[in-house]
Write a structure and sequence with these properties.
This protein has one domain: Sandwich (Immunoglobulin-like), CATH 2.60.40.420. By secondary structure, it is mainly β. The longest helix is centred in the N-terminal third of the chain and has 9 residues. The strands form three sheets. Strands 2-1-4-7 form a four-stranded mixed sheet, with no helix packed on it. Strands 6-5-9-10 form a four-stranded antiparallel sheet, with no helix packed on it. The two termini are about 15 Å apart. About 10% of the residues lie in helices and about 35% in strands.
Length: about 110
């Protein structure tokens, strides 16, 4: 079991940091951070500011999406928000695919309830 840092505990218990930023850093779908931790009341925001072609975020594994949508389109030079996690999303890692014009990567969203 991963030990929770003080910052993570404060964010989780106070609602500070209502979103987690995920930067799409390459045209082959690489993101930073690779996995993002989402606590109740938080959402992911994918940024493609350095990616002039945009990207597609897709939760297509058997686990589905922890959010209300399964596919998100990030416009070139723009952002997209996941919205809040579904109330019935389980506490676990959900794999997703980031597809860009030069390839794709498979990072994850870790839901903490």
């Amino acid at each position: 079991m991963k030990q929770e840092s003080t910052i993570e505990r404060v964010q989780r218990t106070t609602g500070v940091g209502a979103h987690k930023d995920v930067q799409i850093v390459t045209d082959d779908g690489q993101v930073d951070p690779g996995d993002v931790d989402i606590y109740p009341g938080q959402e992911a925001i994918w940024f493609a500011h350095n990616n002039q072609a945009g990207a597609t975020i897709e939760f297509s594994s058997a686990d589905g999406s922890p959010f209300y949508e399964k596919i998100f389109h990030v416009p070139a030079g723009g952002t997209v928000s996941s919205g809040l996690a579904r109330g019935d999303a389980q506490s676990k890692r959900y794999k997703y695919t980031v597809s860009g014009p030069a390839g794709h990567s498979d990072p994850g969203v870790i839901i903490h309830n």
